[in-house]
Automatic annotation (TrEMBL):
Coiled-coil stretches noted in the UniProt entry, renumbered to this chain: none
Note on how the cofactor is bound: Binds 1 zinc ion per subunit.
Enzyme Commission number(s): 3.5.4.25
Protein name according to UniProt: GTP cyclohydrolase-2
Protein encoded by which gene: ribA
Length: 372
């Protein structure tokens, strides 16, 4: 662990903290720090203050770290030889950035209101690994991927090493915590199973419908959380109808054929970018960007889900040979790569509506979904 010590070993006691915490603990504390608006102190890298959440309102910095998509919008494309494509970009302004200058640089939703203040200059990054880890941590924390670099007046920083991140995503740490009978409208004999991990504290659940049998492959639906669609009945996506139809299909299968089904409800909102960033993407969609471009314009991946965790849930349930309800071949591939045998892809297409027709067409044309 001593190897993880950064270039400033005496800085605010960073040495002792980085040596005393485990990598998984540092990763979890870093995600937490970003949500709270506290800076991160990267081993072999700078101190980075998350612009969106920063509580240090008096912080200033001569440089900022932003996504390459954001750099393109800021008209830095011609200077991007300083940075590799799709990699984070380090920018320097004419004057130091304070919060009022940094926020419109961070947030594409403000572009229509704020004429962008330049000129900015892109600089080469000497700590690429830390820069990429910072972008990934911002995605996990559900905040905008934009940071002040080595700011003044930023407050105490949380130590982190880029290599800590793999421990956060460790699907092997997931365990079944409890199970309970849960009568639902599709089936009054359903059972809910709750999962937790000591690394990533989001709680996933599975709903088992019908009687689990070792001799028949269950019908499985891997559903990613969509608060707007699942709970509020949003018409912008197909999540709510897909959720209901999956449970009904499993109940029919149990009743008619004595089969069984498992719905995995994964807490990875917005294909892994979080609720607030998904709503930011919706604003951009109202400006004319499609679902893929909107994510990318925010500097976030258009697909960031963790299918290894879904595979681990299936393994813990004893369901390693399955029939998967999906239109997305990438889900089948990801589960198979993680050791699940998918014997059949069961089409799961619901009727569209005027609000989600374009979204579904984009999934078909740009994301490889097999939709008719
Ligand atoms: N970022 C983003 N996420 C969205 C948008 N619309 C829906 N989602 C999220 O997409 C996820 C739903 O995807 P799923 O239906 O599980 O999966 P899929 O990849 O569409 O494939 P299927 O299995 O065929 O439905 C949920 O986490 C939603 O919150 C959007 O416009 N932007
Ligand atoms: Zn949805």
């Amino acid at each position: 662990m001593g190897k993880a010590i950064g270039p400033h070993p005496t800085r605010h006691g960073v040495r002792s903290l980085i040596e005393s915490a485990t990598p998984a603990r540092r990763a979890a504390q870093a995600v937490d720090a970003l949500r709270h608006g506290w800076p991160l102190a990267f081993a072999n890298g700078p101190v980075l203050l998350p612009v969106e959440t920063a509580i240090a309102s008096g912080a200033t910095a001569s440089r900022m770290l932003i996504s390459s998509a954001r750099a393109v919008t800021l008209k830095l494309a011609n200077q991007l030889e300083a940075a590799a494509p799709h990699e984070p970009v380090l920018i320097r302004g004419g004057e130091r950035f304070d919060m009022s200058a940094a926020v419109p640089i961070a947030d594409p939703a403000l572009d229509l209101r704020n004429p962008l203040k330049g000129p900015f200059k892109a600089e080469a990054i000497e700590w690429e690994v830390a820069a990429k880890a910072a972008m990934e941590l911002a995605r996990i924390a559900g905040i905008l991927p934009a940071f002040m670099v080595d700011p003044d007046n930023a407050g105490e920083a949380q130590p982190i090493a880029a290599s800590d991140l793999v421990h956060y995503a460790d699907a092997g740490a997931l365990k079944i915590i409890t199970r309970a009978r849960l009568p639902v409208s599709a089936s009054d004999t359903a059972e809910i199973v709750a999962f937790r991990s000591s690394a990533d504290t989001r709680e996933h659940v599975a709903l088992i419908i019908g009687k689990q049998r070792g001799d028949s492959a269950p019908l499985v639906r891997l559903h990613s959380e969509c608060l707007t669609g699942d709970i509020l009945g949003s018409l912008k996506c197909d999540c709510g109808p897909q959720l209901d139809a999956a449970l009904r299909a499993m109940a029919d299968h149990a009743e008619a054929d004595g089969g069984w089904g498992a719905l995995l409800y994964m807490r990875q909102e917005g294909r892994g970018i979080g609720l607030v960033n998904k709503l930011r993407a919706y604003r951009l969609q109202d400006e004319g960007f499609d679902t893929v471009d909107a994510n990318q314009r925010l500097g976030l991946p258009d697909e960031a889900r963790d299918f290894a965790t879904a595979a681990r849930m299936l393994q813990l349930l004893g369901a390693t040979t399955i029939r998967l309800m999906t239109n997305n071949p990438a889900k089948v591939e990801a589960l198979e790569q993680a050791g699940i045998n998918v014997t059949e892809r069961v089409q799961h297409q619901l009727p569209d509506n005027p609000h989600n027709a374009h979204y579904l067409a984009t999934k078909r044309d740009r994301s490889g979904h097999l939709l008719k």
